[in-house]
Amino acid sequence: MGRTGKRKGKKDVREGDFCPFGITDKLKALGWEAALKSYDGESKNLYDAEIQEWMATLRCPPFKAPLKMKLIGTVNNIKVEMSYDSLRRIAKFDSTPANQYIFPRLEDLYFNPHKYPQWNYMLDYIFLPGTTSGKLYRRNLRIEAKLMLVVCTNVIPRRGDKVEVRFAKVPVLYMLHGSPLVPNRFLVLNNICWSKQWGKEDHPAL
């Protein structure tokens, strides 16, 4: 892939910026510390054009188990695959022992997280007191959740409203609590998959 150079207009958030708030320790406890780095090694280059080309051609073949999920697209007419194995080759994602991770139902995580029994408790954990009765605004997140949102953000810019917190982000931000342990790769693959706006009935995992 050809490099596009350093992304302009973006502040470089260093791992040390997270330390005073305990975010680095929380991410290490989840096995997610590799998510703090989104660059090509130490050169700090992002492949924006290639990523967008890959996303435009993306497909998800049917699979029977979460660990078998793959996303396949093309870049410069070359097939490029993202999977649990390929992500692990890039960085040490999910560094906690594998038997400690669970795979949540997509219904609870993406489609109807507000119907989950712990919904109100999750809101109280990540938002400031008295700010969850109406729309969920990013400005009302606790500082730890705001920093976590930086880690959760896709490389591909979100084109919709950036003022509010989507319901599907709430369970992920709540994972700062340390439970449950969910593979970062599970979230990455499914988040990219759903960013393509595939319908629920078309998702090969359902």
Report on the structure:
With 206 residues, the chain is mostly helical. The chain contains eight helices and two strands. The protein has a two-stranded antiparallel ribbon. A hairpin with a 2-residue loop joins strand 1 (70-75) and strand 2 (78-83). The chain is globular.
Q: What keyword list fits this structure?
A:
single chain; 206 residues; mainly alpha; two-stranded antiparallel ribbon; 8 helices; 2 strands; 32% helix; disordered N terminus; disordered C terminus
Q: What oligomeric state do the depicted chains represent?
A: single chain
Rg (CA only)? 17 Å
The portion of residues assigned to helices is: 25-40%
Major sheet: size, sense and barrel closure?
A: 2 strands, antiparallel
DSSP summary, beta strand count? 2
Q: Give the distance, in angstroms, between the N- and C-terminal Cα atoms.
A: 33 Å
Order of helices and strands: HHEEHHHHHH
**Beta-strand proportion:** 5-15%
Q: Tally the helices: what do you get?
A: 8
Mean pLDDT: 79
State the shape: globular
Structural class, please? mainly alpha
Enumerate the spans where pLDDT stays under 50 for 5 or more consecutive residues: 1-11, 199-206
Strand order of the largest sheet: 1-2
Compact description:
The chain has 206 residues and is mainly alpha-helical. The protein is built from eight helices and two strands; from the N terminus they run H-H-E-E-H-H-H-H-H-H.
Helices, strands, pairings?
Elements: H1 23-30, H2 48-56, E1 70-75, E2 78-83, H3 84-90, H4 106-111, H5 119-126, H6 143-152, H7 169-174, H8 184-195
